[in-house]
Amino acid sequence: MSGPVRDVAVIGAGPAGLAVALMLARQGRRVVIHERFEAARPVGAGFMLQPTGLDVLDRLGLGRGIEAVGAPISRLFGRDARRGRVVLDVRYDALSQTSGALGVHRAAIFQTLHDACMAEAVDMVTGWDAVAAHDGRLTARDGRVSARFDLVVDASGARSAVAADLAASGPLRRRRDLAWGALWTTTPWPGAPFDPAALEQVYRAADRMIGVLPCGTAPGLDMPLATFFWSLKPADYEAWRAAGLDRWKAEVLGLWPQVAPVLDAITDPEALTLARYGHHTLDRPAAPRLAVIGDAAHSTSPQLGQGVNMALLDAQALAHALVQHVDLDAALGAYVAARRLHVRLYQALSLAFTPFYQADGRFLPWVRDHVLGRVARLPFADRLLAATVGGLLLDPRPHR
User: Fold this and answer.
1) How far apart are CA 105 and CA 124, in angstroms?
2) What are phi and psi of 262, to 5 degrees?
3) For the CA atoms of 59, 65, 70, 71, what is the dihedral angle to 10 degrees?
4) How many CB atoms within 10 Å of residue 112?
5) At CB < 8 A and 24+ separation, what contacts does 361-364 make?
6) DSSP 193
7) How far apart are CA 366 and CA 387, in angstroms?
8) Digit-coded pLDDT (tens) for 194-246
9) pTM of the model
């Protein structure tokens, strides 16, 4: 048996960490966020808030604020670079219960959640790089040990040292570093002919993928933005840099000439951030006085755009479990049970879909274009695709 939770340490000031800190602070708990950077800040470009993630923010009273700075997304579609054939077309209006997704810059959601946390008197400790959590105490990389907390929540991301330490005791399915990653950056919105309400992608087989996502605006900027990404193997990154921007831009334009205004805004390779993807799932994202949420608990490729959304759902499930169960052990068990099926399903789907969009060879892209494309046109397939991308299979949202 364990007692009630009064003092909570949260590791990481990303969307998952800020969201769970806000939820627990509003429950009357004392919350301290431990952030490894000297100043808490957003990391990364834009992403899609799916109906699941939007629902979590709406329940926090932050929905309207984030919608004001985001870009409504009604459609995802992708074309073959050679023939222009549409091989992916997902429309959220196939679902009657949702209005769609939202393209959001990470700086915007960070500011929204950070401000809400400060309004609830959440404490922030920076320069604390946590590498382990045992019996409610955090150990930093420099050897410091924290005071004891009733609960530690690890929200420090896919490369979490705390989750890796926990996994040493056995609750980690084998981690796999994926061969493909991507270069990401933010640019001004290019305008026509791009659809301001769609994520657009162009493919050459599965070894080249280009995407443009409208992502609203960011704090301090009075202009619409786009997130641009280019599929790349991390192993090829140094060769990409050595080849130079001009050669790369020529390749991109050869596949998608309309993207020229986006490329014009990229004048330095440092503006493009390399994202490395890996797949892992903690079998039990909890231990005594410890809960693991978000990418620290389960990470994969971003093909279904679920990362931040799954993290927000984890935060919500953990906060709900702590209200339903005064005993911490019971609450952690309820959190694990609440998220197990949904996480397992989307981990499997993301891993299965990835090779059709990021892989060598020609067979899987052929299947994607000629078989899956036809299956997608069958009756009810549009609803299934929209529900899948929206994170709504095994709908995890609690009833209002």
Assistant:
1) 22
2) -70, -45
3) 80
4) 23
5) 361/205, 361/206, 362/205, 364/206
6) T
7) 24
8) 999 999 999 999 999 999 999 999 999 989 999 999 999 999 999 999 999 99
9) 0.96
Q: Which of 134, 165, 166 is nearest to 151 (CA)?
A: 134
Helix (H) or strand (E) holding 56: helix 51-59
β partners of residue 204: 208
Query: In whole angstroms, what is the distance from residue 29 CA to residue 138 CA?
Result: 18
Nearest Cα residue to 181 out of 237, 240, 227: 237
What spatial distance separates the first Cα and last Cα of the chain, rounded to whole Å? 31
DSSP H helical ranges for 127-244: 161-167, 237-243
Query: Residue 188, preceding bond cis, omega within 30 degrees?
Result: no
Task: Please tell me what DSSP assigns to residue 145.
Answer: B
Residue matched to tokens 């390399």: 274
Rounded-to-integer distance, Cα 5 and Cα 115, Å: 24
Q: In the chain, how many H helices and how many E strands?
A: 13, 21
Instruction: Name the amino acid, one letter, at 92.
Output: Y
Tally Cβ neighbours within 10 Å of residue 135: 11
**Closest-CA residue to 356 (of 366, 346, 344, 370):** 366
Handedness of CA 334, 337, 342, 346 (dihedral sign): positive
- Tell me which amino acid residue 3 is: G
| pLDDT over 80 at 137, yes or no | yes
Q: Which two tokens stand for residue 211?
A: 């995407």
